[in-house]
Amino acid sequence: MSARTSRTRRRRQPLRRAVPGTSPGQLTPPPDALHPIVSLFGYGPDEHLELADADPEAVREALARWPVVWVNVDGLGDPDLVARLGALFGLHRLALEDVVHVHQRPKVEHYTDHIYIVLRLPDPGAEGLESEQISLFLGHNFVLTFQERPGDAFAPVRERIRGGKGRLRAAGPDYLAYALIDAGVDSNFPVLESLGEQLEDMELEIVDRPGRGAVVALHAIRRSLLNLRRGIWPMREMLGALSRDADPLVGDETRLYLRDCYDHAVQIIDLLETYREIAAGLLDVYLSSVSNRMNEIMKVLTIISTLFIPLTFIVGIYGMNFHFMPELQWRWSYPILWGIMLSVVVGMLYYFRRKKWL
Amino acid sequence: MSARTSRTRRRRQPLRRAVPGTSPGQLTPPPDALHPIVSLFGYGPDEHLELADADPEAVREALARWPVVWVNVDGLGDPDLVARLGALFGLHRLALEDVVHVHQRPKVEHYTDHIYIVLRLPDPGAEGLESEQISLFLGHNFVLTFQERPGDAFAPVRERIRGGKGRLRAAGPDYLAYALIDAGVDSNFPVLESLGEQLEDMELEIVDRPGRGAVVALHAIRRSLLNLRRGIWPMREMLGALSRDADPLVGDETRLYLRDCYDHAVQIIDLLETYREIAAGLLDVYLSSVSNRMNEIMKVLTIISTLFIPLTFIVGIYGMNFHFMPELQWRWSYPILWGIMLSVVVGMLYYFRRKKWL
Amino acid sequence: MSARTSRTRRRRQPLRRAVPGTSPGQLTPPPDALHPIVSLFGYGPDEHLELADADPEAVREALARWPVVWVNVDGLGDPDLVARLGALFGLHRLALEDVVHVHQRPKVEHYTDHIYIVLRLPDPGAEGLESEQISLFLGHNFVLTFQERPGDAFAPVRERIRGGKGRLRAAGPDYLAYALIDAGVDSNFPVLESLGEQLEDMELEIVDRPGRGAVVALHAIRRSLLNLRRGIWPMREMLGALSRDADPLVGDETRLYLRDCYDHAVQIIDLLETYREIAAGLLDVYLSSVSNRMNEIMKVLTIISTLFIPLTFIVGIYGMNFHFMPELQWRWSYPILWGIMLSVVVGMLYYFRRKKWL
Amino acid sequence: MSARTSRTRRRRQPLRRAVPGTSPGQLTPPPDALHPIVSLFGYGPDEHLELADADPEAVREALARWPVVWVNVDGLGDPDLVARLGALFGLHRLALEDVVHVHQRPKVEHYTDHIYIVLRLPDPGAEGLESEQISLFLGHNFVLTFQERPGDAFAPVRERIRGGKGRLRAAGPDYLAYALIDAGVDSNFPVLESLGEQLEDMELEIVDRPGRGAVVALHAIRRSLLNLRRGIWPMREMLGALSRDADPLVGDETRLYLRDCYDHAVQIIDLLETYREIAAGLLDVYLSSVSNRMNEIMKVLTIISTLFIPLTFIVGIYGMNFHFMPELQWRWSYPILWGIMLSVVVGMLYYFRRKKWL
Amino acid sequence: MSARTSRTRRRRQPLRRAVPGTSPGQLTPPPDALHPIVSLFGYGPDEHLELADADPEAVREALARWPVVWVNVDGLGDPDLVARLGALFGLHRLALEDVVHVHQRPKVEHYTDHIYIVLRLPDPGAEGLESEQISLFLGHNFVLTFQERPGDAFAPVRERIRGGKGRLRAAGPDYLAYALIDAGVDSNFPVLESLGEQLEDMELEIVDRPGRGAVVALHAIRRSLLNLRRGIWPMREMLGALSRDADPLVGDETRLYLRDCYDHAVQIIDLLETYREIAAGLLDVYLSSVSNRMNEIMKVLTIISTLFIPLTFIVGIYGMNFHFMPELQWRWSYPILWGIMLSVVVGMLYYFRRKKWL
To answer: Measuring CA to CA, which residue among E185, E182, E181, E77 is closest to residue E122?
Structure first.
């Protein structure tokens, strides 16, 4: 248990963005931020360029050449890089600040020539499904994404760019942004599925062998569901706003696709709430299983006591050493006593059966 | 129990529509999809045609000839067929995709010359009333429905087409769509009625013989109610939108009927919520029954112990082998002791009666 | 208990209006519908006519002669009669259908020359306060009401027509409709009052003698409150709509009275919710009473065991038959042992007192 | 307990306004209504008149002479008086009816030349803080208030009229109405404060000595909070409407003060809901305290049984009277047995310590 | 425990602003208000002035000279000072009254030439995180703040004024007001973080060693969360209004920053609700831990009783003194009896193992 705890402690980031009251617009990265790796995709309908490790200069060149450029930064450990990319793409200062203060709620913010979108994705490796913040900037010819940790939620989109099939290569940066958001939202499904399976396994376990471990595990699942929920509810709002509100940077067709993405978020919320209710129900089942088990134990205890305590009393009587106990001399006392004791037992067993304790 | 589990496992479909991040518009049917069977109805006020197994060519001919054509596809196992029917009826690509990704929430989507409606009906054969997705396309002269499994929710509508009485044969495809939706919504009633009866039986059982089985069964009912609820709430929204929003494909008269259908959905929700509260109340009754029973057992245990343990102590005293115990020689010790023991018992019984433990 | 159950079963009506999927507009009465009795009132400011058993012909004549005609039908067993009255008064087909499908929620529907209102009143005779559906049609010069069972909610209104005092005889059919609705809504008060008294009695009983019966009774009250609630919430909406929306059939003055009626419905809901919370609170009190009682029993059990089990062990020691037990020969062993045993008892009692178990 | 009950019974008023279905507009006072006492204040900036017992004629005269007249009626036992005052001030019939039917929710009703306001104030003397209805009519130059019972919520306002300082004497009747409403709303604070103190005391008691009395007292507090809540929620709505909606009878400045009054109502609701949550939390603490106590008792019981029952068995063995038991003759049997028994006890105590039961 | 209580008592302030019904606009400070200390900052882009203890005259001078003046008053014990500052800055009477009546909910009120803002900040030193009221007035060239107690929430802002870096010194009083509000809102983070850590520690403790202290501590955390929540919810509304509604005193740029502040409040609420759910879940874990422990104890008790009580009965039989007990003479009785007793024990242990009690 202690191993698990210390691990939780290590991962937990402070909630505060900075010391309360400090000046806004400061780019102070989270203390455990990783060193950034910048990757770049530039593509048009026919060709594409992929750079696994790009520097700002390469980004500038790609912007000049390719119809759509996607720059992805894994790790927020270098505030200078963030500032330089911000200057290169002309991003708003408050947005840049939110990139490194990784406790933002999912939201969308419209600036004059770019949109800033914050996503929160469950991090399957983290304790209790703590979520990771993904920042996405959408401009006229670029998409810029920042991830806290290198993850593979975007891997299938990379494959689609490389493959060159489907709409993606022919469409603009808004469609790329949609594809990334969609991949992010859908990354909740495997996590949810795994939680659903855990709940199902737990259901069998709780009914068969209710133990303390089950409640602790159930509590952990409920915490994970709470964490998922904290990420997906504002994501739904954000997707609703994005698919509803007109912005020249997002085409009508893409808005239709985002509506589909919104539907997925609602589906995830539906499932989440159902799982939460099932988990609550399981706790009830557990508690009643425990009290049933207690009941059963009590019944055995009562039956044993009720059968033997009176008998022990009876045999105690004739263990007394009084000089004048007429029964002791009688010839048939002993067998008669056996008879009495037997009938006491039989009578009690009959009584218990009538009470349905057996 | 294990049989039941494995069955659950077999039926459970993965939640994900596809691998997250794959291109939208792909028609990947669910892994356990059945091979499709296409049936066709064409009718006008006076005549009708019924084909139990139709191919796309037959559909094309029927569309040319009959005022109203209803094509029903049972089973989603053949994506090519779905694509060909989509092309034949001019359906939107995103809608076709939702047909085969069978975890949609009930919704209505208006396209330029057709409406796409998703229904979810409880599948009485499935574990925990998992719901089945029905897709319905309504066009100028056709209704196209897709079902996951051949079911009989639509059987009465087929009978009404064959019979030729009532409004159905004389009315347009919008009325047929209404009739199908109405049959779908109303198919919740028998399921609810059966759950209501189970709850009523459970109530008697819980009061008479509270056992572990009851809680597990109650939990199963609550899960079923949750599943029904997950289907019917968005159905209500969808019916509200359909009966409220003007669309040239749905006549005013049909909208009035859809309003009636909406009322049914609200009625179902009312019942559902009432059943959920009753189920929660039953759990309370169960828990209190169990603790009452425990109480009763404890009382018996206490009375037995309280009566006999002191007596056993008393007889133990005179079983001691001390050489100098004056009472042992006295003539009346033994009968006097019986008197003392009797009065102890009587005194205790009086005390218990005053405490209302008897 | 079985008698109660079978009675419940007899009264319970199927939830379904009809077989799902059948054609709408069919007048299939509920299976246990009673044979209808038609009564008629015709009145003006000065005179009135009362017919206890009227046929459609008499209704037609009364319509021609009296300023206001009220036809009341008790029992829905004759669909033909409903259809004939529908034709006579020119009622809409969907409304007529809802009259016989007695599971409608309270609602108001405006047709071109009549208003259709559905009320649900608690049926004090029914198990769990199942509600009865009352249908009310309001036209230019008539009010037509359908009741499932002959009841006396409308009796005071009849008296007021006969008496001829107050506004009723001078006012139009809208005021009559208001008077009937008001009588219906207010019929919830005595039912609520009786539930409130039951809750109060239960409170005393639960505190004094918590027993299994109390929980079952509490559960029954909660079910009744749920049933009442299911009727009165939509009634509130309906009354709000009726008093707010302009309709030439309802005068402004009557709308003011309906507003008063709406206030009553809100008052009923307030009380209902308060009673629901009190009932939930009583369950908590019950559960804590039971566990307190258990606690007390356990304490007695523990004290008995703790006092006598060690003593029994001590006397058992000197009941052993070892040849070499020096204590047995000593002169003062027996009185000394009594002293030891007494001090053990006193010590324990002192310990229990300090623990506050006595 | 029975004394308390009978008192509750005596105070409880029937919920119904009248027999359901009777004609509206009837002035039937509640059965236990007190005989009315009419007091009168007439004032202007410089002078004031106070009559402790006024008749309608005196009211008429005061209306003619003073800029602002406040008539207060304590007790609703005389419907004629209510009717005469209604005629004198030109009040609406429906409003007068609501004055005597004392189960109105707080509300405001705008009539052509007066406003009718219903307040509900907690009655500290009543069982469970049952509330009292105050009716307030505001006209061009008068305020007319009706109270069920003579109470002192308005006493400070009387003092302010007599004192003649502050805005009150110089302002119009709308400011007087505000002052009365404000005094009424604020009369919830001492009641809440007392409940808060009771909760705090209870918290200590429950943690230290959890007993059945605590739960019953907690239930009583929760009922009182429910009753307060039933009065204050609609009061908040009413104050919101009053401070928002324009009415020539209420000046803009007074509306600003009413907004302040609305803030107080919101503050009261905030506190109320916090107290409700604290009370619910205390029940949890109580239940866990009880089960902890039970746990402790069980531990003692188990330790006693576990220590002595095996020992009693051992000494029982050597109390048997078999002729051939070699141990009985051995010289060191008795001391060896003591050794065995001691080591059994020590072993068990070690085991309990490891299990943390000691 | 008593020390803690008396401390709570001392700190608790009466809820009431004043005696109900007294005239509004009276400046009666809370009974335990501290003597005020007035500090002053005047600054422009290039210079600044700081006075640790200023009098009204110094304030007047600073207003005339500096572009932005911030006056901060710690302690509300001197109503005259409040009144004089009110007159100096031209503040509204109702607002001044709210400054000293320190139970306001967070709110914003727009007066003609100043805005009055009420904040509530958690007071980490107070019992149960009782909150402190901060009043902030924003005018054309000043910010005036009142604090109940000298606190350090605003310390970083002071540092930023002194430092002269960042936007603060160059911007107007609206930006200063934003900086102060932001510091106030963010002061919730460390408090929340500490509660989160306490919850995490408690989780480990409850799973390992469930004790009564844990529940009491959990209850205290829940109370603290309730208190935080009571402050932060209306703060969110207030910030929403402030960032949305146009007011000439608040620039567009500042409104953008306030929107960021609003996002922080929403983040705090999210965390708060998550913690509340976790705390509720921990109670469930605790209760199930306790009942598990009870279960375990019961099992030991049952096993001991079940093993030894029958054996004690058996040895009791052969302790009887009947003259005619054939078994007593038999040669092998004693070893045979041992065999019987051993097999009884083995049989029972086998039974328990099968029942999974071992």
So the answer is: E185
Per-residue pLDDT for B152 more than 90? no
Sheet order of strands, C48-51 included = C48-51, C37-43, C68-74, C142-147, C131-138, C115-122, C107-110
Residue of C nearest to D2 (CA): C204
The chains found to touch D (3+ Cβ pairs under 8 angstroms) are C, E
End-to-end CA distance of chain D: 41
Could D20 and C319 be called an inter-chain contact, meaning their C-beta atoms sit closer than 8 Å? no
CB-closest option in A155, A313, A321 to B308: A313
Q: Is residue B70 predicted with pLDDT exceeding 90?
A: yes
d(C-alpha C64, C-alpha C59), whole Å: 9
Residue of D nearest to E215 (CA): D285
Are residues B211 and A168, on separate chains, in Cβ contact within 8 Å?
no
Find the length of chain B: 358
Task: Chain C: list its partners (3+ Cβ pairs within 8 Å).
Answer: B, D
Residue in B closest to C98 by C-alpha: B260
Of D186, D200, D312, the CB nearest to E312: D312
Cβ-Cβ contacts under 8 Å between A and B: the total is 171
| Stretch D281-296: mean pLDDT | 82
Is residue B149 predicted with pLDDT exceeding 70? yes
- Count CB pairs under 8 A between chains B and C: 170
Chain D environment of E309 (Cβ under 8 Å): 309
B neighbour chains, 3+ CB pairs within 8 Å: A, C
| Least confident segment among A30-34, D34-38, D188-192, E279-283 | A30-34
E270 and A226 within 8 Å at the Cβ level: the answer is no
Q: Is C147 helix (H, G, I), strand (E, B) or coil?
A: strand
Comparing alpha-carbon positions, the chain E residue that sits nearest to D303 is E301
Asked casually if ipTM beats, i.e. exceeds, 0.85, the reply is no
Render pLDDT for D150-175 as a digit per residue (tens, 0 to 9). 877 888 899 889 887 778 888 899 99
D74–chain C nearest CA distance, Å: 24
A222 contacts on E by Cβ (under 8 Å)? 277, 281
Q: What is the DSSP string of E278-338?
A: HHHHHHHHHHHHHHHHHHHHHHHHHHHHHHHHHHHHHHHHTT---S--HHHH-TTHHHHHH
pTM of the model: 0.79
Contacts of E135 (CB under 8 A, 6+ apart): E95, E98, E99, E116, E117, E118, E119, E145, E146
Which residues, 6+ apart, have CB-to-CB distance to D134 below 8 Å? Answer: D118, D119, D120, D121, D145, D146, D147, D148, D153, D184
Measure CA of the first residue to CA of the last residue in chain A; give whole Å: 41
Q: How far is E19 from chain A (nearest CA, A)?
A: 38
3-state SS of chain B? CHHHHHHHHHHCCCCCCCCCCCCCCCCCCCCCCCCCEEEEEEECCCCEEEECCCCHHHHHHHHHHCCEEEEEEECCCCHHHHHHHHHHHCCCHHHHHHHHCCCCCCEEEECCCCEEEEEEEECCCCHHHCEEEEEEEECCCEEEEEECCCCCCCHHHHHHHHHCCCCCCCCCHHHHHHHHHHHHHHCHHHHHHHHHHHHHHHHHHHHHCCCHHHHHHHHHHHHHHHHHHHHHHHHHHHHHHHHHCCCCCCCHHHHHHHHHHHHHHHHHHHHHHHHHHHHHHHHHHHHHHHHHHHHHHHHHHHHHHHHHHHHHHHHHHCCCCCCCCHHHHCCCHHHHHHHHHHHHHHHHHHHHHHCCCC
| CA A166/CA C180 separation, integer angstroms | 67
A211–E292 CB contact, under 8 Å: yes
- CB-based contact D95:D116 (threshold 8 Å): yes
